[in-house]
Amino acid sequence: MIERHSQTDWNEAQPTRRALLRAAAGVAAGTVAGAGHAAVASAPIPLGSAAEIGAFRADSRYRAALKRHCDVVVPMNDLKWEALRQDRSRFDFSGADEIVAFAEANRKALRGHALLWGEALPAWAKAMTTRAEAERELIRHIEVVVDRYKGRIATWDVVNEAIRWEPSPRQPYRDTIWQRLLGPEHVEIAFRTAARVDPKARLVLNDYHFEEPVADAAARRRIALDICRRLKDKGIPVHGIGMQAHLYAEKGIDVDGVQRFMRELDDLNLDVEITELDVIDWKMPADSGKRDAAAAALVSTFLEAVVAVKRPKAIVTWGLTDRYSWIHETFPRRDSARARPLPLDADYRAKPMLAVLERYRAGLS
Ligand code: 9MR
User: Fold this and answer.
1) Does residue 120 have its Cβ closer than 6 Å to ligand 1?
2) Tell me: the pLDDT tens digits for 244-283?
3) Which residues are catalytic?
4) What SS3 class is residue 19?
5) CA 77 to ligand 1 centroid distance, Å
6) Is residue 37 over pLDDT 80?
């Protein structure tokens, strides 16, 4: 077992002497997972997970897994409008505060998810009708939320899933309440406000469907870069792009496309982070051993493609254990087998995917 890498400030992750020594020791002892892979010591990459409040409260093994496997914790749902703003006039921070306190007590970094999203909105927000109302609410929301966690939540997904499924330069944005009432400016307002309230925060544009070998994914990468370039041209801070990386086992990875994307991010002086990694295995054969091997190989192919060009600021999975995952409901299998999207199985046993991730955490890839 690779020693836990406790890194409080994952934004500043550097190859420490300890990490290098640990890496070298792992290679020498032959304990490194993914045997056959030429392990090379390099900067450790902080690992993290989203934490779902129901499981977090009810299941002590879930909390133990977060402590053991994470350098970074992300409240999965409790910083969304739906959780914070059921009541229009009063913010409810109870769930978010619980997870933030846990992260701080255990010296984990935090990512905030998400300040602007077209989903997970309370009914009153979906029913807004005027530009002035949307702008007022959006600005107030970001002011209150970012200010509350200023200096504690180091990184924010400022805008989540704003890019249309099949975007074009003329129609880059998804049809959301924000786009309907504010137009393309909704993205600028969100980033500008977050930067004003916490000038030290790292501000990320988060989205998905960037890595499959299809034309749509290439178009989405191009649009994401365009959005960031335009923000920068206007002097509005944006620090990185979050690749959610909900990977489809049957689709594979566009390695060349992903690597080009990394170089283009470099050209714009933008970071990359992997923000919601998991594997959608609904089209795979039921055999769990085969599925786990395929998931680990897919994650490895994806992360190798990224890391070969650019080291992500963090690698975050959307949960840790197959016991709890959105994939069970959203991508139900036709047979009676359960989805196996995450690095630990439903009984918290390590799967091959965990070994792949730990190589990066230990600085061996
Ligand atoms: O996993 C999350 C699930 O528990 C919520 O019900 C849902 C709606 O808030 O959001 C899920 O997380 C999503 C994330 O916030 C954004 N990217 C897609 C994720 C899976 O739907």
Assistant:
1) yes
2) 999 999 999 999 999 999 999 999 999 999 999 999 999 9
3) 161, 276
4) helix
5) 7
6) no
